[in-house]
Amino acid sequence: VWTGTIALGVTLLLACQIVLLRIDLRRHQARNAEAVARWRPLLNAIIVGESPALPLLPAHERIHFMRLWVHLQGSLRGEATDALNAMARELGVDALARRMLARAPRDERLLAALVLGHLRDRAAWDRLLPLAQAPDSALSLTALWALVRIDPAAAAEYLTPLFIERDDWALSHVAGILQQAAAPTAAVLGRILPGLPEERLPRALRIAEALRVPLPGAVLAGALSSGSVPIVIAGLRGVMTPETISEVRSLLAHPDWQVRVQAARALGRIGNRDDAPRLTALLGDPQWWVRYRAAQALRELPALSRADMQAVRASLTDRFALDMLDQVLAEQETA
What we know:
By secondary structure, this protein is mostly helical. The protein has 19 helices and no strands. It has helices at 2-47, 62-73, 79-90, 93-103, 106-119, 125-132, 137-150, 152-165, 171-178, 182-192, 201-211, 217-224, 229-237, 245-250, 257-270, 276-282, 288-300, 306-315, 319-334. Helix 16 runs antiparallel to helix 17. The longest helix is centred in the N-terminal third of the chain and has 46 residues, at 2-47. 33% of the residues are buried.
């Protein structure tokens, strides 16, 4: 009896909790709808260049307004974003967001970092720096994005070593954040790469590749001559200019097939007509991926015409090499 009574009591408490949570959710949705209905017309008027009189921003509408404001900022460019920034400052949203960074719940701190990034609020720099090193990946990446928006050059100087150290930050996110600071990031990478420990070099080189920034030839040459296969592969993926073409050519005969794959791809980007025989020889490689990338690289060489490709095809005696070249040429026809 007592067990049943206690179980019934717990069930009733859970039911009451669910009802209360549902009521709170409905109340929150109603407040959000009310805030959106009040502020959207004013925001739309600001976007089209009007100057409506702005009411005070009530405390219970601040979060709803900031979410709507961030949503609009993410879909606009140019003068409209400047007008929204001026509106936010007039309402005191910048000061509010800086206070939220210090003591608000996690989701509100994320929102505050987004707001300050869009505002390019220099006064928030020192408050965003500690968040950039937080163990919470989402919070730290949002703070990093805001810092890059505020001052790309200073952010690249401070953040690039962090990006290299933090393996929990996805490279796609890192590249998206640093895209606005690609030039200063390239300068920082070129300066710090020679002094990095070997285990950090592959990630640093992959960041440069993701940003499509050319690194100094001496830095890349050092990576390509490394005895570590991951470093050599990462270096080959970052080759964008012909400064290191001799090193790339020498790696076509590397004993590791993954290196030969990346060397063929790199030669397709920076090679010339003289590299056609080298890539043609690579069509007979025992590894399928090496043959495939070599055929693609031949197709991508800028100095080779269609007639030249047919001459290469006619010179092949290896059945596997011929099949691979035919496959790549067929892919080009159907592309």
